[in-house]
C-alpha cells in the first residue's frame, strides 16, 4: 500500500465515520499529527506542518489528537533527540552542507541549528511512515468498533439531530 496524499476537497469527510475509503485520511492525519507533536513549536517547520495538515486530505481530528499525544511524548524524548541532533550537526562530513544551507533565505527561522529541533525533525521523519502504517492497521482493525461507539454517543446524536454541523458549515 502506497502513501496517498491528496489536497483537501470541499466538504467534510470527518462526519462520515470510519468507512473503508476513509482509512487512509485518518492514518495520514495521525502521521502528520505525530510530526506536529514532535517538532518544537517556535520554529518555521511547525506552521508549515500545520498548513500541510489542513490542506491535505487527512483527518483533522486524528491529526489534532495525535499531535497532542506526541507533544507529551516529545518531552520524554528530549535527551535522545538532543543527542541525535548534536550528532548530525557536529558531523565533520556534513559541516560544509550546514554552512551552505544556513546562508539560504528562511532557513535560519527553521531553527535547524538547534540540536533539539534537528533531533526532533529527524525523529519525526524517521517515524512518519511507520506511524502511518501502524495507525492504518489500527484504524482498519478497530475503526468499525469506534464508529459504532461514536454514533451511539449522546453528544454525537445531539449534534447530528440538531444539524449543528450543517449550520456551522453554512457560515461564511
What can you tell me about this protein's structure?
Helix 1 runs parallel beside helix 3 and helix 1 packs antiparallel against helix 6 (115-151). With 172 residues, the protein is mostly helical. The chain is built from 8 helices and no strands.
What order do the helices and strands come in, and which of them pair?
Elements: H1 23-38, H2 45-55, H3 60-76, H4 78-89, H5 95-102, H6 115-151, H7 154-162, H8 164-169
What proportion of the residues is helical, as a percent range? 55-70%
| Assembly form of the protein | single chain
Q: Unreliable stretches, pLDDT < 50, 5 or more residues?
A: 10-15
Main sheet?
none
Cα-based radius of gyration, to the nearest Å:
19 Å
User: Element order, helices and strands?
Assistant: HHHHHHHH
Distance between the termini: 38 Å
Which strand-content bin applies to the residues?
under 5%
Total count of strands: 0
Structural class from helices and strands? mainly alpha
Mean pLDDT level: 82
Shape: elongated
The number of helices is 8
